[in-house]
Specification:
Blueprint (H helix, E strand, L loop, with lengths): L1 H15 L5 E5 L6 E2 L3 E22 L5 E8 L10 E4 L2 E3 L4 E9 L6 E14 L3 E14 L7 E3 L2 E6 L6 H21 L9
Parallel strand pairs: 1-10, 2-11
Antiparallel strand pairs: 1-3, 3-7, 3-8, 3-9, 4-8, 5-7, 6-7, 9-11
Length: 195
Amino acid sequence: MTKLTCLCGMVLALLAAPASATTLSFAAPAPAVQVGDTFTLDVLVADAPDLYAFQFDIAFDPAIVQATTVLEGDFLSAGGRATFFLPGTIDNSAGTVSFTANTLAGPGPGVSGDGLVVHLSFHALAVGQSSLSFGNVVLLDSALMELASTHMGGAISVASVPEPASVVLFGIGLAALTAGARRRGRHTLPNPDRT
């Protein structure tokens, strides 16, 4: 009887286990973002079952980076129907992109799987690291029921523009001196001792 109770308990635990949550995350930008660069950062969705619509906010450090554009990714449109995309509002003083949203048009199933939901473009202002986070996340299925979700923050590291190595500067200086010496050698005055 004890083995049967144990087996029933395990089956009930497996049936009660929640389905995997849909995940939003940031794809890492190019590893060498430098001051002055403009770069794209993608927002990805994973394990989406029947995603029909979404909305979210993004926060960043406005002293390090500034958002420039928000463009629709191809995940929802891969469902073969029209979409209605709202890029949201960029506020570079507060360091936010608010109310980015997208939905499929008309009735029908949502899109399942993994993919790209939004392209964000940023301009790197200063050396440092900007954390990235999601807020006000809502993911809906085709019955307009909220999907269980998790969201993973990220970070953007901005490095200074590398300065030329001192060896390169030394080589440039040496080449300039050599070129100057050659020019002076061509324009020498006649020697009065020669007859």
